[in-house]
Amino acid sequence: MESGVGTAAVPRGLPYYVAFSQLLGLTVVAMTGAWLGLYRGGIAWKSALQFNVHPLCMVIGLIFLQGDALLVYRVFRNEAKRTTKVLHGLLHVFAFIIALVGLVAVFNYHKKKGYADLYSLHSWCGILVFTLYFVQWLVGFSFFLFPGASFSLRSRYRPQHIFFGATIFLLSVGTALLGLKEALLFKLGTKYSTFTPEGVLANILGLLLACFGVVVLYILTRADWKRPSQAEEQALSMDFKTLTEGDSPSSQ
């Protein structure tokens, strides 16, 4: 059993921001479901309601779960690094699968209705985000979970992985806001400017989406909230570097 000597203290304020982010994220998911249920007829796969699967899946996958995957290294500060990596990767896998279901739903719906695909700014941004997300996961798996990458290569790629992870998350939030506005304009048209209940609810949902993105990015950018390197991780990194690059371990 590990003693508390090597346990890193949780920074003041971090638990409150993480809890606030989860409250925002769950509220966003719940409000998306409420919007679709109250004003769009609900959700079904084998009917005209198939389109509604798209926004719900994208919010759950590419917003909420992706945001949580990014926060894994802030929340689990003292667990084994490999366990944290696996959890980080699994959350991204779940997010990708759910987003894929949402993508299939909208293309199937368009095909049934005879609508054109990929003509709007929202659809272009959506395909870009989905593609980048898939590539980011593949490259991340190859570098950090697959045992073939060298220590130096992982170290050089890590800053790019972190940067593109945050960028893709930010693009996901922006794309969701574009889609929300597009859906409102298609259905409400000029009524949108009359402060209809659906428009007000969707506007609040958009603000909460933006707030969730801002809170997650704030947690990620606080340097003093990063997961500290543990002694065993540094030793394993040195051993891995020695085995893969032939370097001799430096004296302590």
Features:
252 residues, mainly alpha, Four Helix Bundle (Hemerythrin (Met), subunit A), 7 helices, 73% helix, globular, disordered N terminus
Q: In brief, what are we looking at here?
A:
It contains seven helices and no strands.
Task: Describe this structure as you would to a colleague.
The protein is mainly alpha-helical and 252 residues long. It has one domain (14-237): Four Helix Bundle (Hemerythrin (Met), subunit A), CATH 1.20.120. The protein is 73% helix and 0% strand. Residues 1-5 and 243-252 have low confidence and may be disordered. It is a multi-pass membrane protein. It comes from Loxodonta africana. Residues 20-221 form the Cytochrome b561 domain. It is found in: Cytoplasmic vesicle, Secretory vesicle, Chromaffin granule membrane.
Topology (SSEs and partners):
Elements: H1 14-39, H2 53-75, H3 81-113, H4 121-145, H5 151-188, H6 197-221, H7 231-245
The CATH topology is what? Four Helix Bundle (Hemerythrin (Met), subunit A)
Shape: globular
**Biggest sheet features:** none
Total beta strands: 0
- Classify the beta-strand content into a percent band: under 5%
Number of DSSP helical runs: 7
> What count of domains describes the coordinates?
1
Going by helix content, strand content and strand pairing, the class is: mainly alpha
Q: What is the subunit arrangement here?
A: single chain
Low-pLDDT ranges: 1-5, 243-252
Main location: membrane
Subcellular location: Cytoplasmic vesicle, Secretory vesicle, Chromaffin granule membrane
Pfam family, one: Cytochrom_B561
GO molecular function, one term: metal ion binding
